[in-house]
Write a sequence for this structure.
């Protein structure tokens, strides 16, 4: 940790800080300069958090040397982690495609969509039972009934299923019926929920919040992993920027950052990332090229009738074409679609 | 609602949409143009949500004419709403100041802080019992014990108290011990929590999310109000931008927007809004000048020892000075600090 | 154009606006609603600009139906445009790679870099003679001498050259020595410069400004094209967001947007787009996968000694590896690296 | 300067960097840690720029201790600077109001507007002769003729005048006819223009770019001041964010930052900052409360007919009311409107 003192900071104040650092078992370093005094603290600087040096009136700023996350960092764990989503390993040689509608709207509809995505080559099935909607007047999902339908349709089609969990109280139910939890962008910093998922036994797909930096996502993942659940998949799904031609701005370089900083698998959601049906396929190819471990794609048997997110849902034939065109990109990336 | 069709849209597709609008009881309007066909839907366009026209392949985009929120809109309710926070009315002639530490750290400490803010002229007391923290390794609050301390200290000092609720399961406890709920930025779109608060009987201070537009905040408020709880106070606390010299970018023009679009009271949190102790007071004055109904300010009896957010917490004497200098700004705005 | 009137707007005000629309030769449409009156204007709505309806006190907002740009729009010109950069066509079947150092630092150095990029398979050479630098104390480029060196090295290696023009007064010099102009992100809305380039006879690579939406870029391109120079290449190079792990946030979905809205070729600059050497190659592959027509990559014969942007410049062997790994992605996109 | 090396960096690489620092006359400091080696460089770290350490493959990142700007910093010059705008000092005890139309549209119109703003109490007159417009099809200003009209109207009404300079070639003309240069947001990093203004003899109002951080603005100001022109006024006018209810997001905390980091005067432009007529006055009051030294406000004798920016221009009577209501806020801030 580097501690930059304010211009007028006294030797007394510096000494106070130096001795606090020493008392924590770190090696303190005093670097008086002509314009600023700088203090170093060598060792496990995470211990310094308890000193709350940022609040000290003599401190201009702190520059941590080490990342604030540990368990999820690649430094602690240089090898890629493999997360097991049902029978599908994520983070290995395969490139995983999870498709399905935004929301579970009923058995018949989901079954139709599921057959289509399976036939096109998808490995997993997605579908929301609990829908966080911006408007209280919009369709909020089928809840527990939706979970049951999702499980059934997944089993019938031989695909593991993933669904969003939006509330602590639903963790058990989702764990019972689904093969993976999805934490949505709006809940990425719902720390109570993250802690509960850290104690669960199913993998967690953690979506990046709309205002979350890559480091924020890794800190959120740390919540889960530090509780014991190592099965976390990071998901880039776009951030909020001034650009309004897309629903969000898909940050594919975040895939590079996640891969450089963490050992966890990374998938991309080009559907929410763009919000525009026509842009989903090219962003799926780009995700594969950028080094992602898979994609989540919204597919609806009839988007014209979708109860949510229809504008970004692919028609089944569009998804089939995507899968076909995706293959050479996946292979160019040295990966495979065949599990 | 204005529906712009894609360049190649056929008359048949237009007719399909026109008849759907008609079937919903709105007046359809057909406007063929040289480059685009435009369709209008006159009437209560919120009914059109069920048609999911945005998903229709022939539709380029929808331009709603009316706002998606109703109950919180000024159009539905032209007069300012008054929210009762304990014995303090918010949204009337008074300018409300709520002060206190980021977190309740114990009875003695909170009591010291509370006496200081009371003496300086604050009307309400704030303090977190459940703390959402970016790092799993940071202090997470005292929980229920913190709630009890907060209630006691509030009563002893004759100040209503507000504290953050982060989870559905805590709603009852917070309602029991506090005079108001605070919904933090990270939970602003925790719709399940909002729904529960809409059924509660204490006022809700709803903080703007870091990636939330003014309209998103109003939609979140609509969740609460549409469930029956009219007592909502909107809180501007900064949004996330590229500017890194402050923790967030405090958007004081949001006060103007909220006031123009909604009848709900609006307060400003210059502490989280800037994250820098020295900028809190000027932003508090600016909030009063911009037309806010009050401020939430972090004050700690000794910020150097604060367990969270110390860098933005005021020392008691700084807060006392703030209160003194604030008065003429409040009066210039035609308001009063005296209740 | 759709004109939404304010709630209290009178019939008289509506009539005033309707007759203004009529006088411009557009078909006015009156749509009174229960909550808002809406006015339509059918025809070439760009003529309405002169009415300044946005300033009218009775007008709540304008919703244009048509894009504000014309000459660059795909609607006006459905076929892809091909821009000729020296002997290299951009926008056709080929995927163009332009490599070279951020700045021309001298003949020997540029020559070394140029040979390396040529040998690795690049088609064009880049190098700055006029450098816009954030700090007045940084290296500002070799100016005219740099231009001459660039031209010579380009000729010796059989590669067309591109360099940035930062000022009206330099347009002639750059046109004389280079095969293409580059307009940097900071000058994207230097409208005087754009107008001058619209009267020049060399192609223009227009880089997206850090705060420019896709539509803003298209409007800037319209400045050039409307003056007569059809040879414009759009360049995505990242926008400014809150994410600080990369220098900018590379918006690859902008490639999709540009392609959908305009007939102009699109290239991507993964060097400025990320600012991190290790992320350049994956973002180059992703650009190819997203449908771009080429990339601009910073390569320096010895980045450790580069006078600018060293941290994002590739070493020659890194660039050679990039070119090799890029090929299957380009082919997967149905394009070729061989001209 | 703190230099953090990558995890695998060798002692040899550290030594190479240490000796380079030593050779520049700074004191090198070697701090090996368990996870990272950190190197310090004590002294005038600005000299290290020439070493381009950021490009070194062993370097993870650089953390400068000192700000990159010098001449504009408050550390170098603790007292507030006063800039003389005609007969009006900016940065002293007075709060300066500059009003006028977005563009000079002709003598009669400007004269009417000027009389109105003068009568209402404004100190200076603004008006654009060269207009940077997003669309090539919009009104581009009257140019030299506009400058002459502006000068004449300013003289007739006893007000200094300010106008935007958009191009190097116009610097002399603007210097001749106006009392101050305005550099617009789009030209804030037009470094050639800044350098020329640094050699001019009139004050420069430097507007913050839409994607410019506070530090970027200070670096741009450094360009001007380092060339010899000390007369720089910083202008906050909003940044680009995801919020679309206002044209920009006015960052009033930037006033605090500018005041803390620099000795230069700071004014606020609530017209461009909001883009909404109704929000201009409250943001003007907030600017005064935040500690600004003045405001720039767009006022048009008849905004309904304005050739540009009509939606954000005040009617003369609105401006008169603003001036009246502004006074107590200015006085609460310990300033005066009377010069």
């Amino acid at each position: 940790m580097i501690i930059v003192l304010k211009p007028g900071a006294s030797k007394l104040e510096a000494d106070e800080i130096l001795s606090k650092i020493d008392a924590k078992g770190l090696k303190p370093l005093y670097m008086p300069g002509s314009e600023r005094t700088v203090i170093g603290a060598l060792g496990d600087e995470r211990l310094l958090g308890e000193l709350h040096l940022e609040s000290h009136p003599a401190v201009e700023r702190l520059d941590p040397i080490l990342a604030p996350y540990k368990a999820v960092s690649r430094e602690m764990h240089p090898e890629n982690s493999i997360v097991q989503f049902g029978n599908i390993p994520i983070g290995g040689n395969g490139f995983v495609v999870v498709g399905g509608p935004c929301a579970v709207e009923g058995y018949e509809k989901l079954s139709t969509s599921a057959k289509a995505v399976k036939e096109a080559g998808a490995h997993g099935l997605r579908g929301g039972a609990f829908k966080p909607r911006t408007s209280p007047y919009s369709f909020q999902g089928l809840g527990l009934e939706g979970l049951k339908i999702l499980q059934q349709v997944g089993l019938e089609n031989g695909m593991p299923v993933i669904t969003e969990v939006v509330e602590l109280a639903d963790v058990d139910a989702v764990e019972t019926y689904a093969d993976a939890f999805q934490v949505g962008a709006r809940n990425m910093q719902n720390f109570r929920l993250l802690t509960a998922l850290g104690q669960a036994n199913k993998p967690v797909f953690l979506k990046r919040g709309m205002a979350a930096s890559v480091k924020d996502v890794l800190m959120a993942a740390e919540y889960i992993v530090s509780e014991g659940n190592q099965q976390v998949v990071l998901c880039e799904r776009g951030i909020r920027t001034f650009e309004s031609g897309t629903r969000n701005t898909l940050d594919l370089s975040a895939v590079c950052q996640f891969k450089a900083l963490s050992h966890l698998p990374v998938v991309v959601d080009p559907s929410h990332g763009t919000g525009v049906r026509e842009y989903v396929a090219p962003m799926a190819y780009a995700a594969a090229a950028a080094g992602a471990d898979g994609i989540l794609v919204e597919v609806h048997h009839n988007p014209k009738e979708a109860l949510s997110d229809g504008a970004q849902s692919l028609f089944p034939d569009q998804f089939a074409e995507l899968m076909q065109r995706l293959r050479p990109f996946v292979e160019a990336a040295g990966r495979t679609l065949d599990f």
Q: What stands out?
A: Chain C has two domains: 2-63, 83-332. The two ends of chain C are 45 Å apart (CA to CA). The CA atoms of residues 203 and 231 of chain C lie 5 Å apart. Chain C has a mean pLDDT of 93.
